[in-house]
Each structure stands twice: as C-alpha cells, then as structure tokens.
Write a structure and sequence with these properties.
Length: about 220
Amino acid sequence: MLLAIENVLTDEELAYARELFTRAKFIDGRVTAGELAAKVKYNLQLPAGAAETQALTGLVHNSLHRNALFVSAALPRVVCAPLFNRYVPGMDFGIHVDNAIRIGEVTLRTDLAGTLFLSEPDEYEGGELLIEDTYGVQRIKLSAGSLVLYPAGSLHQVEVINSGHRDVAVFWVQSMVRDIAQRSLLFQLDASIQSLRSRDPESPEIVSLVGCYHNLLRLWADI
Ligand code: NI
C-alpha cells in the first residue's frame, strides 16, 4: 500500500524546517547506507549529532504522531530518527531495497518507509521518487510538507536531479502490526468507521464496528 498524506507539516513548521536546512552543514549521504545501497547512493545528508538535525527530528516526530491518517496507516510502534537529505544537480539514488533492520540509537525492523518532502515540486527538475508496487512503477513528487508512505521492502530509486535542489526527510517505521495485509485491513476498517461516524454519528453499528477494530488489533498487534 502506497499512501500520500498532504500537509503533514504546518506552514510554520515547514518554514522552520527549510530555514534549518539553509543553516546546516551537509556531509556525504553514504555514511548511513548499507553496503549495497552505498554503491548507488549519491546525496548529501545532515550529520546525526548536529543541532539542526535534533530540532528537525523533534519537529518531524511531532507532526507524524499527531497525524491521524499516518497513525491509522502505519500503526507505529517505533519511528526512527529521520535522515535529512539534500540532492543537488547530478545526484541520485539508484534502485535498491532498504535494509530490513536499522541499527541506531533505537534498533527497529523497517516495515514502512516514508519520504517527507521539504522542497516544492517546481523548485527542482528531475528527482522523482520511483517506487515499484503491485500496480507497476509509481512516480512520486509531492508538495512541500507532504509525505509518501510505502512498504519498506519495495524496490525504489530517486532519479537524477537536473536543477535546483531536492530536500527531504526519510524515515522508517516498525509497525505494531507486522503483516502488511492485516495492516491494510485495519486501515480500511478504520477509514470506513470514520466515514460512517461523520455521516451518521448516532448509527448503532458504530460501537460494534469499533469493537471489531479493537479486537482485530488485539489479535494482531505486538507491542
Ligand atoms: Ni531507500
């Protein structure tokens, strides 16, 4: 399941994040890549210990945890500290699959991957994120402040940048529900319940459907 979520950041958060990007000193992005990915990764990255990185991490984590759509789709158990990347002309990230386990301050299994866009689509040429899913290759380029969430096991790549620069935050999520089919069913059920609640808040079926949701979550969740 590939999901785009718009306006994850408020205008103020986006402006602050972009200001931090202008102040920060970038390093070679290969420092955090696995052995295979390092051969195809060509971008810049904020160092983990930098003050700007800490501020951006808090900002992104807050925005994710308050976003009902993200929580419903990912059912996050752990969200890792994001990587903050910049691609300038000539840079790209060739086709790869992300490592299954991410070892860091917090070690997690990467069930879902997210890319939060910090540059507007008209600020750079090229740089599309290509993700292979069951419907074929999806080409993703979202507005600044928006997020794409996709299964971390998908083959994906970032096309070469021709002009401007592409700033993004990328992160991984370990979900409470490991199985992608179970997670998708819960997401679909939750969306249907929310829709029913807004259309007919007094509907007597709501309580039983909410019960089904929680009982399925009880059955499938690992915490
Ligand atoms: Ni990747």
